[in-house]
Design goal:
Strand content: 15-25%
Distance between the termini: 41 Å
Structural class: alpha/beta
Number of strands: 8
Mean pLDDT: 98
EC number: 1.1.1.184
Bound molecules: NADP nicotinamide-adenine-dinucleotide phosphate
Organism: Menura novaehollandiae (superb lyrebird)
Number of helices: 10
Pfam families: adh_short
Keywords: Cytoplasm, NADP, Oxidoreductase, Phosphoprotein
Helix content: 40-55%
Low-confidence stretches: none
Enzyme class: oxidoreductase
Largest sheet: 8 strands, mixed
Amino acid sequence: MSNVPVAVVTGSNKGIGLAIVRALCKQFPGDVYLTARDPGRGQAAVAKLQEEGLRALFHQLDIDDLQSIRALRDFLKEKYGGLNVLVNNAGIAFKVRDTTPFAVQAEVTLKTNFFGTRNVCTELLPLMKPYGRVVNVSSMASSSALGGCSQELQKKFRSDTITEDELVQLMTKFVEDTKKSVHEKEGWPNTAYGVSKIGVTVLSRIQARMLNEKRKGDHILLNACCPGWVRTDMAGPQAPKSPDEGAETPVYLALLPSDADAPHGQFVSNKTVRTW
Ligand code: NAP
C-alpha cells in the first residue's frame, strides 16, 4: 500500500475540474487523480496536462453510477488505504433555452448534482484520512435559489439540525412536485439547477456537522464553494473568469494547511465565507 497522499477530482476532463487538477498537480504533494465518466475524454485530458509538463493519474468515475463510485472506492482503499483530498466538482446544467420539460430537467439535474454527489460522499467520506480536505462545488445559484424558497423551506435549509435523510426527502419532494406541476405552490423556486445546488450546500453543512460529532480528532475540513462565473461549456464564453481562476477557491479549500481549523461547514466564494 502506498503512503503517498492522494487527491481525487470528480468531473475533471474539462472546465473547472480540469483546472483544479492542473493546480493540484502543481501544488499538492502527492498523486492527483483526474476522473471522468468517459475514459477517452479523461485520458485525452491527462495527455493535455502531460503536454504542459504535469503528471495527473486517471481513474474512471461516473457519479451517476454506484458501481463506478464503488470501484473507485475499492481502488483507493487498496492502493492508498484512504484519501486525502476529495473535490466534488462534477455537475450538469440545462441551458436556459433548453425546451426539455421542467420536470425532466429537475429529475436529471438533481440526479447528478445532488444524488450523485451525495453517493460519492457516502462511499468516499469514510475513506478520508486525518487532516483530509473535502470540497463540494456548489454555486451562488444555491443562495439565490434559497432566497426564492418559501419561508418554511428556507427555515429548513438553514436549520442547524436538519438531517441528511430529511434533506434527501426534500430534494425528492422537489422532483415529485415538478412532476405534479405543484412545485411553485409548494414553495420551490423555478430553478432545477438552483435547487440541486441548495442540496449540495446544505449537504455540506450536514456532513461537516457529522464530522464534528463523529471524527472531531481527525481535523478533516469540509466546505461547499462557488467557483464564480467561469468560461466553460456550462456557463459559456461571456463569463468573466478563466477556468484556472475558477479553480482558485476550490483549490484554496482543498489545500487548507494542516494547522487550519476553519473554514469548515461553510459556503465559500472568492475565498470568503458567505452567510447562508
Ligand atoms: P463543464 O465544463 O460542463 O464540466 C462539467 C464536468 O462534469 C465535465 O467534466 C463533465 O463530464 C462532468 N460530469 C457531468 N456529469 C457527470 C457524471 N455523471 N459523472 C462524472 N462526471 C460528470 O462545467 P463547469 O463549468 O466546469 O462546472 C464544474 C462545476 O462548477 C459544476 O458543479 C458546476 O455546477 C459548478 N459551477 C460552475 C459555474 C460556472 O460559471 N462555470 C458557476 C458555479 C458553479 P463530461 O465531459 O463527460 O460531460
